[in-house]
Amino acid sequence: MDDSLIDTLIVGAGPYGLSIAAHARAHGLNVRVIGTPMDFWQRHMPAGMLLKSEPFASNLSSPSPGSSFTDLHPGWPMGRPIPLGSFVSYGQWFAEHAVRGTEDAQVEHVEAADPGFTVTLSTGERVRALNVVIAIGVRQFAHVPDQLRSLPPELATHSVDHHDLSRFADREVTVVGAGQSALETAVLLADAGARPTVVSRKEQLAWNAVPEPDPSWASRALRGPQSGLGRGWRTWLWSEYPATTRALPDRTRQKIVKNTLGPAGSWWLRDRLDHRITLRLGERVVEADENNGRVRFSTVTSRGGIHLCQTDHIIAATGYVPDVDKVTILDPQLRRRLRLRHRSPALSRHFESSVPGLYFAGLAAAASFGPVMRFVHGSSFAAQRIADSLARRRTSTSSGAAIPPKQTDKSVAPQ
Prior knowledge:
Elements: E1 5-11, H1 15-26, E2 31-34, H2 39-44, H3 69-72, H4 84-99, E3 107-112, E4 117-121, E5 126-134, E6 156-158, E7 172-176, H5 180-191, E8 195-200, H6 217-223, E9 226-227, E10 230-231, H7 233-240, H8 242-247, H9 250-259, E11 278-281, E12 283-291, E13 294-301, E14 306-311, E15 313-316, H10 332-336, E16 340-341, E17 344-345, E18 358-360, H11 366-369, H12 379-398
Helix pairs in contact: 1-4, 1-12
Region (Disordered): 393-415
InterPro entries: Auxin_biosynth/cation_transpt, FAD/NAD-bd_sf
Keywords: Oxidoreductase
């Protein structure tokens, strides 16, 4: 194999990227991980946030023992929410102990080469890789409703844009949405001294049930087993057997992705959503514009009533929608070669796209493998499948079947 051609370059150092790296290196592969460990969680999730997932569903994945969240935090019980800072520290600890080597840089461009790919980094280096794994997380897929897109960023943002909400102290802030992100953002805004209002088209808020650390036999039989996505037989299937989800008809799978774990708040958040937060349920924003440095917007109720409102700022806590066109690090010609499934790459059972050697993990894989790919819990399945596939590709290329004779490539920076 050409010494200048590495096995795999992983784009992203979040839970998926780090987990894939740990499994790939256990196979003896030459892997480079580009990104700052847990950077998205540290800089784009709100300070004071608590994770919705239980400890067993918040693990990064390594084939070596001793790398789970509770290995770093022994005795952390089920039902005790994990603070954002604790999870970030765990991910950084995992990177140091289970991966041992990430690069604090950014991938700027990925283009096809022969063989593999040429990847340009923010440092100016150009790297040749037989395989590239896109594990970029969710930030690029932040969804802002059409009605808010014309507003300037000083007046309208997505929840992913905020780590420090103290900038909104003494200001009126409208949060659009009804899920955990919307409700927790509203609570944290109130904690920071803002005057938040939640606007949601839902008539009622939904809340997750209080977990049962040791449920009775009757409870397990009636409510189903506990899984990374919650309790229930179908939830357990989508959570623990993503390969089954992938085998379903496309229409069925997309219905599962859309409807599993819909907008709802964590049980521990319910009491914190108090008198400090104004709730406007059963309303949807239909129009918004700037008016004297504030946002003027109108909503329509479920009964057809129209309300005219003003606020200092609007935060869209409206989730994430994967779209390959937003993965702008991929060369346009490379993107055009991708076979798509609902604007996401259609993936093989090993997470490989229609472009050989180009893999996708995390939210971009949800259209193929189901809702667990929206959560940290899906990283174990994805990491094992991808690493096994990378190892097989390495074995086949080592025989010389897919690698042409070595040629001088002056575009590759010295290592």
